[in-house]
Design brief:
276 residues, mainly alpha, two-stranded antiparallel sheet, 16 helices
Length: 276
């Protein structure tokens, strides 16, 4: 694979058959990167491309193909895989290094890391078909536990806050993901570059819209003047438990839960930052 570290190369190419699998897998990666037509990619995946697993080759799974589509923003291919295979395309693939079944939601994390807002929306729509609401919520809030998986130990929401990807964050929160990461959002606001300040502010705003109760954060009390100037008096007092949430915040909470488009289409003076 293109992202295999040099220290892992000794584990590869142990037989001619395995080397052939690596060659076809890399060809498939390049084909998705070039955004070849969907029918051609599916023909390749089903008949020509193989992974090496448990000492024998096997065809690429739809979930593995979806990861490639996410990395290279091949929206047509992602749409096909999700329409054809539904939530099975979102199953965590097996880790090729430790041979264990990965858990969590790697597709959500990859979508957030690469800021693939359109494909993320497709995946969240597909998740509505997963059956029980508790399973839907569990998937959205899941952590990856395999150390070989990028962003292991983080939920998609936490990653969106850390990377300041507000559009991804809003999609996840509207679908019911847990609004974690307020402390990270506050730290991002004061540590990011000026060019990233707007995105960091939007992430903080969206978290505030979906927080049921503000958590107790010692940093606000330790540097009260600094945070009061950044957040505004009303938001600061609410987060410190000294006052109810601002009226505009309460109104926007109801609007935000009805869909992400409801917030993004508001006039500028009604955007969340206006309550400060």
């Amino acid at each position: 694979m293109p992202w295999v570290a040099s220290s892992q190369l000794d584990c590869l190419s142990s037989s001619p058959s395995q080397r052939e699998c690596e060659r076809t897998a890399f060809s498939f990666y390049c084909a998705v990167r070039e955004r070849l037509p969907v029918w051609l990619l599916e023909d390749m995946r089903i008949m020509e491309v193989f992974c090496w697993e448990d000492g024998q080759p096997r065809a690429f799974l739809p979930s593995e193909a979806l990861l490639y589509a996410l990395v290279h923003d091949h929206q047509d291919y992602a749409r096909y895989l999700l329409n054809r295979y539904s939530v099975s395309a979102l199953k965590a693939p097996r880790c090729s290094f430790c041979c264990c079944r990965s858990t969590g939601a790697p597709h959500l994390n990859v979508a957030v890391r690469y800021d693939r807002v359109t494909i993320l929306g497709m995946m969240l729509e597909a998740l509505k078909d997963c059956g029980m609401k508790s399973q839907h919520r569990e998937y959205l809030d899941s952590y990856g536990n395999c150390s070989h998986v990028a962003d292991a130990g983080k939920t998609a929401v936490q990653l969106a806050v850390e990377l300041s990807h507000p559009d991804c964050l809003l999609l996840l929160l509207v679908q019911g993901a847990r609004p974690d990461g307020l402390d990270t959002a506050l730290q991002r606001l004061i540590s990011c570059d000026v060019s990233e300040r707007r995105h960091a502010q939007r992430c903080l705003d969206f978290l505030l819209l979906f927080l049921p109760e503000p958590p107790l954060l010692r940093c606000l009390q330790d540097e009260s003047q600094r945070w009061q100037s950044l957040l505004g008096n009303e938001v600061f007092c609410w987060l410190c438990g000294l006052a109810p949430p601002p009226l505009l915040l309460q109104a926007l909470r109801c609007l935000a839960r009805s869909g992400p488009d409801q917030i993004s289409t508001l006039s500028n003076f009604l955007q969340p930052h206006s309550w400060q």
